[in-house]
Amino acid sequence: MGLFARKKRPAVPVDRAVPRHIAVIMDGNGRWARKRGLPRQAGHKVGAETFRTIATYCKDIGVQYFTVYAFSTENWKRPKEEVDALMGLFRTYLKEAAETMFQRGVAVRVLGDLTPLPADIRALIREVDEIADRLGPDAATASLCINYGGRDEIKNAVRAIALEVQRGALAPEDITEDTIGARLYTAHMPDPDLIIRPSGEIRTSNFLLWQSAYAEYYFTDVLWPDFKTRDMDAAIDAYNKRNRRFGGV
Ligand code: IPE
Ligand code: IPE
Ligand code: MG
Predict the structure, then answer these.
(1) How do residues 206-228 score in pLDDT, each as one tens digit?
(2) 3-class SS at 195?
């Protein structure tokens, strides 16, 4: 740098602690579109762009795990054309992930019951998974929850444990909280520290029920397609002011 060259202001606040695991319920795409007289799908498209921006930002500021709720086990109730549009976006983003994640150093994972998804999407998820495995456990992780439901996830864990007990591989008295945690989609991740829900709704809608036991929640009226890096900063600042006691004093 030249002697009088102006130092570039860092894009990211440098002296701020960031949560290790941030999760987002990406909500409000439909309302964003309706406000503009557009079809709901248009909101999902812009919401997907927001995902790209915010996931990149989280990686840049040092968030190790970034997890988003993209499609719930209840979202199949929506009109077929909306579901198809969402599947189309997953296709696009998974293809992009497969092409770029190694060079970006971000392990993309998909969490949820993948069995009802179209076969080509399942194949893309397998491809992305293999690349993520090669990146290793220290890479920043971006997880997309697709056909994810917290109750469904716990039900599947209970079923797996019941089968092990039936086979005689596990004794009921040896079942611990870790036995359950290890059979969830998030088995290899720490619990979320901060869960953000935009769009003004104050509910979990079946997201990370087990894992959120001691998460800090942050709610904002901003609709997800309007969510900017400054909104993420505001959420992290609010988080940093909280006093997490985990039941202690
Ligand atoms: C969230 O936005 C995206 C998904 C649930 C897939 P919505 O589509 O729920 O948007 P609103 O809540 O109708 O505004
Ligand atoms: C939660 O949003 C699911 C996702 C963001 C993927 P919804 O829009 O489906 O939740 P409800 O219906 O308002 O509770
Ligand atoms: Mg919604």
Answers:
(1) 999 999 999 999 999 999 999 99
(2) strand
